[in-house]
Amino acid sequence: MSDTQPEVGNMAPEAQQVVADPAAGRAVRDSRSVTAILALVLALAAVGFSGYQWVRDRGNNDALRRDFAGRLADMEARNKDALLRTGQAAAALKEVEIKLVMLEAKLAESQGQQIALETLYQELSRSRDEWIVAEIEQSVLLASQQLQIAGNAHAALIGLENAETRLKRTDQSRYGALRRVLNRDIERLKALPLIDVYGAGARIDDVLAALEKLPLAMDARARPEATASMPSPAELPGWERLLRGMWQELRQLVRVQRVDQQDAGLLAPEQAFFLRENMKLRLLGARVALSARDTKSYQADLLAALTMLERHFDIRDSAVIAAAATLRKLQGVPVRVDAPDLTDTLELLRKLRLSRARAPAQVA
Question: Residues 170, 182: contact at Cβ < 8 Å?
Answer without folding.
Answer: no
